[in-house]
Write a structure and sequence with these properties.
Elements: E1 2-9, E2 11-12, E3 24-25, H1 28-52, E4 55-63, H2 71-85, E5 92-97, H3 104-112, E6 117-123, H4 127-133, H5 139-151, E7 157-163, H6 170-182, E8 187-192, H7 200-206, H8 215-230, E9 235-238, E10 241-243, H9 250-256, E11 261-264, E12 269-272, E13 275-279, H10 283-291, E14 297-302, H11 305-316, E15 323-324, H12 325-332, H13 336-339, H14 341-349, E16 353-355, E17 359-362, H15 364-368, H16 370-374
Helix pairs in contact: 1-2, 1-10, 2-3, 6-8
């Protein structure tokens, strides 16, 4: 059985104002401790996956900002991961990167060591909006990062963009889309800003220091990105994701199909064999646990069949093609329409869902109001 591998690198130059992911300001000494602990975790799970007959099919190295690591430390991480999990040239290996943490030498090194897909977090093209988000780069630095990635041989680039930023206008969003599309990345992830409670940006909005973008404007921005990118040959294959033909993110498709995945590193999550678990968040506690020869698991949950069915429909409906009916029946021995007949009929009548002979999917209206559909299955 194939499985996705996620490796969490919990370091950043500076934490963005909207971020609630587990990350810490970069310190080389902490990074070395982390890498030693990570290798011990790799060693255990390499044998574990082999015993179960699982083979790593995609790798995603995220964060934090993986490319904040010095080139030598990044090389150590990649050499260890490839040694323990034996991926091939055909394996999709993605690494997240931020402008200001990449250069030609670092990019050439990771490309030579097997990273074949780079995901660059640009988020916006206007200086004021980048400052609002707490980004540590400007647009010129983002451009230099794209050019350096191409020079290093990357032929599969994703760019992350955010809309709904406080103070952002529709014209600014259009400008960002135009500038980034002009660079011809193979993939774009365009997300609506989520104001997570407790983050500095959430505090600024709650206190009235910043005015949030209205729901109506966010919807207009979402419509804009769909129309703009599909008119230019990008396939809108997931609520927030757009790809040129042949460049859909295979690792993320694994999540959306609710397949198994293994997460390594502090705070990383895993899903296998009717279980979900996540690791200890604190780097030092994570390292100490692995030094003891124990797994750094903070909490583990056994899933019921119903839990997995709910997760499968929620993730499947994120895809524009929707949930595969035959696949659901093969996996669970039940038709999705028998599990949720009332909910599905209600959403069809509201114009949010469409049932075909092969798929259950969000309508065009449903894509824009997805949360109203998802809540019915929780």
């Amino acid at each position: 059985m194939q499985i996705g591998l996620y490796i969490h690198v919990p370091f950043c130059l500076n934490k963005c104002r909207y971020c609630d992911f587990v990350s810490y300001n970069y310190n080389p000494d902490d990074a070395r401790v982390y890498l030693e602990a990570l290798e011990r975790e790799m060693m255990y799970y390499s044998a574990y996956l082999a015993n179960l007959g699982f083979k790593v099919n995609t790798v995603f190295i995220g964060g934090g900002t993986p490319t904040v690591l010095e080139t030598g430390l990044l090389a150590k991480l990649l050499i260890s991961a490839r040694s323990y999990f034996c991926w091939s040239e055909e394996t999709e290996v993605t690494m997240e990167a931020n402008p200001g943490t990449i250069n030609k030498h670092k990019l050439r090194t990771i490309r030579e060591l097997g990273v074949n897909r780079l995901s660059i977090g640009i988020q916006a093209c206007q200086e004021k909006l980048l400052q609002t988000l707490g980004r540590v780069h400007d647009y010129q630095l983002a451009l230099e990062g794209i050019y350096a990635a191409r020079e290093a041989g990357f032929k599969n680039l994703n760019v992350d963009l955010i809309f709904g930023i406080p103070g952002q206008s529709l014209n600014q969003w259009r400008e960002s889309l135009y500038k980034i599309e002009n660079l011809q990345p193979e993939h774009l992830a365009c997300y609506s800003l989520q104001l997570e409670e407790g983050t500095p940006l959430w505090v600024a909005v709650e206190s009235g220091e910043l005015d949030p973008v209205s729901e109506e404007m966010e919807l207009e921005m979402y419509n804009e990105v769909i129309n703009f990118l599909t008119a230019r040959g990008y396939q809108h294959y997931e609520i927030s994701n757009f790809a040129k033909p042949g460049f859909r993110c295979r690792h993320n498709l694994g999540y959306w199909h609710n397949y198994y995945y293994l997460g390594l590193g502090p705070a990383a999550h895993s899903h296998m064999n009717m279980e979900r678990w996540y690791n200890i968040k604190d780097i030092k506690k994570y390292a100490v646990q692995t030094m003891k020869g124990s797994l750094p698991v903070a909490e583990r949950h056994t899933l019921t069949k119903r839990d997995v069915m709910v997760e499968t429909i929620l993730m499947g409906l994120r895809l524009t093609s929707g949930l595969d009916l035959a696949g659901f029946y093969k996996r669970f021995g039940q038709k999705v329409t028998d599990v949720w007949p009332r909910e599905i009929n209600k959403l069809i009548n509201r114009g949010l869902l469409e049932l075909t002979s092969t798929n259950l999917k969000l309508t065009e209206k449903g894509l824009r109001l997805g949360n109203q559909a998802f809540v019915e299955f929780v």
